[in-house]
Amino acid sequence: MPILSLLIFIPLIGAAVILFLNTERHRKAICWTATVAAAVAFVLSLGVWVRFVPGQPGMQFTELADWIDALNIHYHLGIDGLSLPLILLTTLLSLLSVIYSWRITDRIKEYMIFFLLLETGILGVFCALDFFLFYIFWEVSLVPMFFLIGIWGGPRRAYAAIKFFIYTLIGSLAILLGILALYFASTPHTFDMIELARQHPFAGGGIAAALVFWGFFLGFAIKVPLFPFHTWLPDAHVEAPTAGSVILAGVLLKMGCYGFIRVNLPILPEASRHFALWIAVLALISIIYGALCAMAQKDLKRMIAYSSVNHMGYVMLGIAAAVAFVAPEAVGQAVQHSRIVALNGAVLQMVAHGIITGALFFLVGVIYERTHLRDIDAFGGLAKQMPVYAGIMMLACFASLGLPGLAGFAAEFLVFLGSYGIYKLITGLALLGIAITAAYFLMMIQGVFLGELRERWQNLRDLDAGELVATIPLAVLMLAIGLYPDLILAVVDPASTALVTNLEQFYRLSDVIASLGG
Amino acid sequence: MPYNDLSIFGPELSLCGLALVVLVADLIVPRRWRLVPAGLAAVGLAVPVYLVASRWMAPQTFEFMGAYVIDSFADSLKLVLLAAAFLVILLSVDYLRRLERGFGEYFALVLFSLTGMMLLTGAFDLIIIYLAFEMISLSCYVLTGYMRQDRKSNEAALKYFLYGAAASGVMLYGISLIYGLGGSTRLSEIAARFMASGPTAAVAVQPAFLQSTLVQAGIPEIYVLRLAELMMPLAVVMVMVGLGFKIAMVPFHAWAPDAYEGAPTPITAFLSVAPKAAGFALLVRLVLLWQPLLMAHWPALLAALATITMFGGNLWAIRQTNIKRMLAYSSIAHAGYLLIGVVVAASDAIGQHGIIVYFAAYLFMNIGAFAVVLLVARNRGSEEIADFAGMYRTAPVFAAAMVIFLLSLTGIPPTAGFVGKLYIFGAAISTGKWAWLAVVGIINSAISLYYYMNIVRVMYFGEPGDEAMTIQPVGITIVAAICLVGTFAIGLFPQAIIELIQQYI
Question: In angstroms, rounded to a whole number, what is the distance separating the alpha carbons of residues B164 and B254?
Fold first, then answer.
C-alpha cells in the first residue's frame, strides 16, 4: 500500500471535500471534515512510525513511479530516520491546530482548505526524494501560509504576508537554480536526490560547487531563518493567526534545516565542509542576537518569534558541527562520535522546538483572544486567576529555556556536547544564548504570572476544552522526550550515524585523492 | 521539390478563406443572428488546426522556392496562435454586444491578422516577412481602435499606428540594405553568402548590387568593403528594431501599455500573446540563420536586451493601478524571459523547446487572467485594480481562478508557468555561459510576485464593498475554464508536451 502517498494526500482530499460544503450552512461539517482528515493523517503517520525499522539502511516505504520520462523526473517518495520525526511533528501539530481552529468565525471554509493544503505541502517536502517533486511541495506549502497570514492575520497582515511570500520565494528560486545546476551537472541528468547524493555532481569543489551550495544555502537559510535572513519572521509571526504561527514556527522553519541535512550535506559534501565554519558563525550570531532581541521585546508573540531564531541557531550549529572541517590528524572515533551526537541533537532540537514553541504560540493565542493584548507589561498575577494556563505555560517556558528533564534540555545538551568536540570556542560562546534565554523567559513569567492580579483581569477564564486538547499533548511530549529522548533518537541515531559515516568516508577518499594530486 | 503544391500552404489559405466567409456571412445574415459570424470564426478554426496538427511531425519542408518553410518549431507556435485566436473569439462575443454594426468584420480582422502571424512563423524571405508584418499590423491597428465611441481606444490605435509605422519603416530600410548587400531576399541565401568567413570575405567573393553600384561610381573597392562590413550589422539591427517592436521588447515597448490599455480587452489579450509568438518564431529563425551576420554578438546583444526587458517590464508593472496596463508591462517582462530562450537557442535546441513550452503556458495563464479582467470590467465598468476588491465573496470561483493564473504567471508550481520557467531557466543553466541570465530571471520572478500578489491582496485580504458579480457571460466562463484546465494540465502533466517537443524539434 502506498502509505506515504496516502499520508500526503489525505489532507488534500479533505480540502477537496470541504470545497463542496457551504460556509454558513455546513460550518460543523467543514470543521469535522478537516479534523478527520488531519486525524487520519496523524494515525497514518503513527502507523508509519510503528512499522518503521530503525537502522535499516537506506530509505523506507519508498514509492517510485514514472512521471516525466523526457526529463527523467520520477514520483519518488521515501523516508528515513531524519524525516520520520518531522513527519510525526507535522501531523501532530496540524491536527492540534485544526482542533484549536474550530473557534475561527471568519471564512472558516477557506481557512480549513488552506490549512489542509499546507499540511499536504509540508508532508510532501519531508517525503519527496525527487527534486522536482520536492520543489513543488516546497512551493505548495508557501501559498496557503501566505493566505493564512493575509486573511486571518493581525492589523498589518497584508504587509507581513507579502513580505513572507517574497522572502521565501527569493529563497526557493535560489533553490530552484541549485536544483537545475545539479540536474545538468549529473550524468545521466537526474532530479533524484538519492542518485545525486551517490553521484556528487560537484565533487571537485571549485566556484561552481560553491555557487550551487550558496544557492541552496540562501533558500534554506531564509526558511530557518538564519541571521541575517530572519527579518521576515517576527512580522509574519506577529501578524499570523494563532494556528498559523504554530505551524510556521513548529514545522515550516524545520523545512529549512531539513533541507540542509537532506540536500547540502549528502549531495554537496565538499562545499558543505568548506563552508561549515561560516554556517557555524551565522548560527552563533543567530543564537546570541536572537536571544538578545527576544529579551528586548514587550510583545509576547514577538518575543517567542525571536526565541525561535535563537533556537534554530542551535539546530544549525549542530548541523555545521556534523560536517565541519577537522584537521586530518585529529580525525578519529572521537570526532566522528561528536559529529553524530551533534546531528542527533540538531534533529531532536527540531522536534523539541516544534513541540515547545507550538505550545507557546497556542498559549499566547489564548491570552490574546481573551484580552486582545500581548504586552508583557499589561498582565501580572495571572497564575492565581488561570492556574492551569499558568502551569502549562510555565512548563513550556522552562522547556524552552532548557530545564533538565524537559525536551529542550535533552536536545540542546546533545547539540552542545557534539559541537564542543568540533568548535570549542563557538560552542562556549553559544552557551551565552542559554543564559540570556533563561533570563527573558523568567522575566516574562514574573511579569505575566506572578505579582498582583490586576482588577481588569479578574474575569479571565482558564483554558477551555478545545485549548486543553491542543496543549496537553504537547505538554506531555515535552516531559516524555525530556525524560526519555530515545523515543525520538531511536529512529534518528541510526540515520545520522549512516549520514556521518558516509560523509567521513567521502572526505577520507577525497583527501587521499587531493594529497595524491598535490 | 514541387513548388506548385499548395497543400503545404493549407492552414494559411484556409484561414484566409474563413475570414472571407465570415465577412460575407456578416453581410447576408440578419442582425438578430449576428452570433453566426462569431460562431463560424470559432468553429472554422478547426480546419487550420487540423491541417497543422496532421502534419505536425512531418520533416522540414520548403515551399515557394525556399521562401516559406514548414517545420515543427513553426507549427508548434502556429498551434499556439490558433488556440489564442479561438479563446479570444470566445472572449469577444460578449464584449462586442454594444456594437451597432461591424460585428463580423471584427472577427474577420482577427482572422486576417492571424493569417499574417502564421505566415510570419514560416517566413523565409524578406518580402514575405515584410508582407506578413504589415498584414498583422494593419489588422491590429484597426482592432485596437475598434471601439470608435471610446476615446481611449482611438488614442491607443493612433499611438500604436504611429509607433508601428515608424518601426515598419526602420525595418523596411534595414531589409533594403540587407538586400543591397546580400543580393537576395532569401534568408538562407543571404546567410550562405556571409557564412564562410565573415562579411568581408563573402562580400569580396560575390559583390552584390550596392557594391557594384558604388564601385562603378568610382569609390575605391576597399572603402566599399569596409562600408559593407559596417553596414550589415546595422541593417540587421534595423530589422531587429521592427521585431523588437512587435514583441514589445524594451526599449521598443513604449507603445504597448497605451495600446493595451485602450484596446478592447479581448484584443489586448490577443496582442499580448499572438504577435509575440509570431515575432519570436521569426527571431529564433533569424538568430539561427544569421549568426554570422552579427558575428559573435547576437547572443550577447540579446542577453542584454533580455535583461533590460525583464527588469523594465517588472519594475514598471509595480506602479500600475490599471490592470490592463499592469498586464501590459507584465507581458513585456515575459518577453524578457522568452528572450533568454532565444539566447540559448543560438547554441542549443533546448532554447527552442523552452520557448514553445513557455508559450503554451503563457497562452493559458495570460488569456485566463484577461478573462477574469473582462468579467470584472463587465460587472464594475472599469479595469482598475481597486475594482477587484473583495472578489473572494463577490465572485469566488473567478477569484480562485485568478489566483491560479497569477501564481502561474509568477512561476509557482504546480502550474504551467512553473514548467515554462523551469525549462527556460534550465536551458540557460545547461549552457553554463548564460547561467547568469537564469539568476536575472529568478530575481525578476521575485519582483513580479509583488505586483501579482497585490491583486490577490485586493481580492482576498480586503472587505467586499460591492454586490456580487452576477453577470457571468458564457464565453468568459468557458475561456476561464479552458485556461484553468490548461494551466494545471501543463503544470502537473507536462510530459505529453515535453516528449512531443523533444522528439520532433
Answer: 11
